[in-house]
Amino acid sequence: MPSAVGIHCVDCARRANSGRRGVRTALGGRPVADALVTKLLVGACVMVYVGR
After folding, report:
1. How far apart are CA 31 and CA 22, in angstroms?
2. Which residue of 24, 38, 48, 51 lies most exposed, with the fewest beta carbons within 10 A?
3. What is the pLDDT of residues 1-52, one digit of tens each?
4. What residues contact residue 22 under an 8 Å CB cut-off, 6+ apart?
């Protein structure tokens, strides 16, 4: 059924989003909001740099 551009009923929007794949990073992992490992690595690099 045709509709105006950008307007979808709730049921059509749910049906369209149900078939989409989730977001992945460039290496295939799932993105995280915390990024604990990255923060630990940056902290370790700073400690090594300051300790020189």
Report:
1. 10
2. 51
3. 556 676 778 888 788 777 777 788 888 887 777 889 899 999 999 999 999 8
4. 30
Instruction: Return the closest-CA partner of residue 22 out of 35, 12, 31.
Output: 31
CA distance 9 to 15: 10
Stated pTM of the model = 0.43
Tell me the two tokens of residue 27.
């290496």
Q: Which helix (H) or strand (E) holds 39?
A: helix 36-51
- The length of the chain in residues reads 52
For residue 48, give both structure tokens: 């090594």
Cβ neighbours for 31, distance < 8 A, ≥ 6 positions apart: 23, 24, 25
For the chain, the structural domain boundaries read 10-51
